[in-house]
Amino acid sequence: MGKTIIDKIWEKHVVHQEEGKPDLIYIDLHLVHEVTSPQAFSGLRMKNRKVRKPERTFATMDHNVPTVNRNKIDDPVALNQMTTLEKNCLEFGIPLAGMDSPEQGIVHVIGPELGLTQPGMTIVCGDSHTSTHGAFGAIAFGIGTSEVEHVLATQTLWQTKPKALNIEINGQLRKGVTAKDVILYILSQNGVNFGQGYVIEYSGEVIKKMTMEERMTICNMSIEGGARAGLVSPDETTFSYLEGRKHAPKGREFEKAIQNWSELASDKDAVFDKVISVDATKITPMVSWGTNPSMTSSVRERIPLLEDCNSKIEQKSLENALAYMGLEAGQKIADIEIQHVFIGSCTNSRLEDLRQAAEMVKGKNIHPKVRALVVPGSQQIKRQAEQEGLDQIFQMAGFEWRESGCSMCLSMNNDIVPSGEHCASTSNRNFEGRQGSGARTHLVSPVMAAAAAIYGRFVDVSELVEAEVI
Ligand SMILES: CC(C)[C@H](C(=O)O)[C@@H](O)C(=O)O
Ligand code: SF4
């Protein structure tokens, strides 16, 4: 019987196995950020322990960092988390891309960008969107703070082997439909629990044709479907992305690595515990209208009616979501007006995302009632975008151009959506209060966010692209 990529990576990493207990697995890369690490380091200090492999650990600051005026941090909790991370990294010998580093950025953006993230690895971070790194053919997942301490101390983790779910996406995507629409569509069809207990492998011709950036967007939101992780079997696209990156192997070592990485892909006859098939031709630009990422519809549709619900519980959650969002059942998605636009987050803040959004806004002005922000995922992306003149395109259209960080994705800094106002956001979560108390989030692709900034509401970007309006 063939093996899945999940079987192959898992087998290579088991350090200890015992019937009826989780496995002890070796961790190749441990990423650290300022929010979930302070207690873990305190724990080490109290037990007088060292970090087992500082060279397999890498830290950055992203959640709390200001995106304007880097030196002005008003919130004492934020400031404390950042200075604590600095002290901890210094004391325990961990490399840190701090706030002033040219490598600073969102942890899930800089791991791949620096070539730290590689195929076949086990990767953890005290952060749920660690699934992003799975795009490289790695088993990458979020862990809690006590597990962060365990990994720091031992470079291993107790884990039960997850089941394997294959999501095959075949057919041709229409113009203006992006990776973000694909994952939002999958969530809208399957809900927020379908992935529980699984690692998802995304496959099929659509994934095969995707760039690494697009694959990262999809893997990033695996967690929103309840999955432990999401991944893609590595191929030529993966290898050429990694070539020449700072921490990727070089020369002969790179050739050897490619040989090993090429063997990781799931075997043709691999058996998955579950398979979901997705017809790409059915996907249109998507917009979330509710308070979890599965409460999403096509921009061409209306918000569901109460009578469309399958159960009383579903009806209640629809009612609650619409009350929070200030929307009506049956309302046209294209009629929802927005006051804020956020282009950023570990889902959609990479160069390709910014290029797509810039193409939409080029030569236009944002709607007078809209405030729009572009927050690049890393300093490196910010510099590249500036070299291409994207910052100018955005600023001329009326966008604010910021420093890198998580920013308005969860509003732990000053980038907040005021209560009752609507935000078209390229992030991954639309939970109540996520972008500020009472804030109303709509999850969309970068090109949809850009269009919403111009029109002040959601438009069918597929039609715009086909009619060559952009
Ligand atoms: C702060 C952190 C623990 C959290 C996560 O784990 O996902 C954050 O990154 C988020 O996106 O909500
Ligand atoms: S960008 Fe958003 S989702 Fe990603 S790590 Fe930061 S807060 Fe979490």
Ordered list of secondary-structure elements with their pairings:
Layout: H1 5-13, E1 14-16, E2 23-26, E3 29-33, H2 38-46, E4 57-60, H3 76-92, E5 96-97, H4 107-113, E6 122-125, E7 139-142, H5 145-154, E8 156-159, E9 163-170, H6 179-190, E10 198-203, H7 205-209, H8 212-220, E11 229-231, H9 236-242, H10 251-262, E12 274-279, E13 286-288, E14 296-298, H11 312-325, E15 340-343, H12 351-361, E16 371-374, H13 379-387, H14 390-397, E17 400-401, E18 422-425, E19 440-443, H15 446-455, H16 461-466
Parallel strand pairs: 3-4, 3-6, 4-5, 6-7, 9-10, 9-12, 10-11, 15-16, 15-18, 16-17, 18-19
Antiparallel strand pairs: 1-2, 2-8, 13-14
The protein binds 3-isopropylmalic acid (IPM) and iron/sulfur cluster.
What would you note in describing this structure?
By secondary structure, this protein is α/β, with parallel strands linked by helices. The chain folds into 2 domains: 5-275, 2-Layer Sandwich (Aconitase, domain 3), CATH 3.30.499; 288-466, Aconitase, domain 3 (2-Layer Sandwich), CATH 3.30.499.10. 33% of the residues lie in helices and 16% in strands. The protein contains 16 helices and 19 strands. The strands form 5 sheets. The protein has a 5-stranded parallel β-sheet, with helices on one face. A 5-stranded parallel β-sheet has the order 17-16-15-18-19. Helix 2 (38-46) crosses helix 5. It is globular and about 55 Å long. The N and C termini lie far apart (50 Å). The mean pLDDT is 97. Residues 62-63, 106, 108, 127, 129, 345-346, 406, 409-410, 427-428 line the site of iron/sulfur cluster.
